[in-house]
Write a structure and sequence with these properties.
Order of helices and strands: HHHHHHHHHHHHHHHH
Number of domains: 1
Number of helices: 16
Largest sheet: none
Number of strands: 0
Radius of gyration: 21 Å
């Protein structure tokens, strides 16, 4: 029952993070021009990429560690404090990179966009959702997040009246999340009971090592998922970037929903595999079959109704992005199935090395395809690379899980 409730909360939290801003898109697109919309999309991606550096895989490694010691307040606080300290250090590094990017991107420079980036990255330090998940406080986190998400369109509709203020689309979420984080920190300290202290360099280093394998997997995964967009930024015009951005904005809620389900399942798959490998493999294939069928139907329905969806959210301003959306709408499902075999399966039985090898292979192929295809074919190359690389990753994870399940059945 707890799994079902937490899954619903997590899906709702992730879904609202994307779906509510989407309802402001039509208004935003009517105010800003295509170039400014392209800047919004580009820097949203950059902030997200740098945020991944701050997270460093702690959401997975710390969840696994905290589950084992959550009854021990001091040990739990030690893990939490170590992660926060490491996040502060990575926040400083991420800001150096951000300032470097802005130094060379003088054409799109805007001090409020820069401020938005700093604030978004700072929020990554204290929004430790994994703590709420382990201590079964997901409902509280979801409620606070919901209030923040509801306020976003209200502020945008009230304040965004001129295209010169396009930076509000980036800054407002940062401010609202900052206010939410103040409440999160209060709850962690006063309701959950964790406290801050300096646990020593040895303990901090231990958390860094535990998270490193997850980080490199996430890092190389982000290379092959984000690199195409970055390449596109060098060769395509802001108008073409806005087409990809318009499709991506509509696909994000689907990704968020699938990602939330995966996030909620990870602790339970860890527990299942620790008790019985055969039971763990059985559930991996069970979930994969159920979701594969549903995903195919869901994605096909969205693809067939792409034109209606686009006109509902954007009007007729970005119609050239409809063809891209019809194809990319299948991407979240492919990613999710790869996640079932990879994260829920391989990482639960500590096959991080094989997982990392597959991700590195995908990153290398992505770099190669981007150099060869993106300069010439632009948005269509972007679409082809994402679909083909994610499909390859899913197939390789499936083959490995299938071999391992047969091995453990025979042994």
């Amino acid at each position: 029952m707890l799994l079902t409730r937490n899954t619903v909360y997590i899906v709702l939290n992730q879904f609202l993070s994307i779906i509510i801003p989407i309802f402001t898109l039509k208004y935003v697109v009517s105010i800003v021009d295509n170039q400014q919309f392209g800047v919004i999309v580009l820097y949203t991606m950059i902030f997200s990429y740098l945020g991944m550096l701050i997270e460093f895989g702690f959401g997975l490694s710390s969840t696994r560690e905290l589950i084992l010691v959550k009854e021990d307040v001091k040990r739990s606080s030690e893990i939490y404090s170590s992660v926060v300290i490491l996040k502060i250090l990575f926040f400083l590094l991420a800001n150096l990179i951000l300032f470097f990017v802005f130094f060379f991107e003088d054409v799109t420079f805007n001090k409020y966009v820069l401020l938005s980036g700093v604030l978004v990255l700072f929020n990554r330090i204290f929004d430790n959702f994994w703590v709420f998940q382990v201590f079964n406080k997901v409902g509280i986190h979801t409620f606070i997040s919901f209030i923040s998400k509801i306020l976003y369109p209200i502020v945008i509709f009230a304040c965004l009246k001129s295209k010169d203020n396009f930076w509000l689309v980036l800054l407002v979420p940062g401010i609202l999340n900052f206010l939410s984080n103040i409440i999160y920190v209060y709850i962690i300290r006063n309701k959950i009971g964790l406290f801050y202290f300096f646990p020593g360099f040895q303990k901090i280093t231990a958390q860094l090592k535990l998270a490193s394998s997850f980080f490199w997997s996430i890092f190389f995964s982000n290379i092959y998922t984000s690199l195409s967009f970055i390449f596109l930024g060098f060769f395509a015009s802001p108008n073409e970037i806005s087409l990809i951005g318009s499709a991506d904005r509509l696909i994000q809620p689907i990704k968020a929903g699938f990602s939330a389900v995966s996030l909620s399942l990870f602790p339970d798959f860890n527990t299942m595999f620790k008790k019985n490998y055969k039971c763990g493999f059985k559930n991996v294939f069970k979930y994969a079959k159920i979701f594969a069928f549903g995903i195919l139907i869901f994605s096909t329905v969205l693809s067939m109704n792409a034109e209606k969806i686009y006109h509902f959210f954007y009007g007729y301003k970005l119609d050239n992005g409809i063809a891209l959306f019809r194809i990319l709408v299948y991407l979240p499902g492919i990613v999710f199935l790869g996640n079932i075999f990879g994260v829920q399966g391989l990482l639960s039985i500590k096959k991080e090395l094989y997982y990392l090898k597959v991700i590195i292979l995908a990153a290398i192929l992505s770099v190669l395809f981007n150099f060869l295809l993106v300069p010439k074919y632009l948005t269509m190359a972007y679409t082809f690379i994402l679909i083909s690389i994610e499909s390859l990753v899913m197939i390789l994870f499936f083959i490995k899980i299938l071999k391992l399940s047969k091995y453990y059945e025979e042994s």
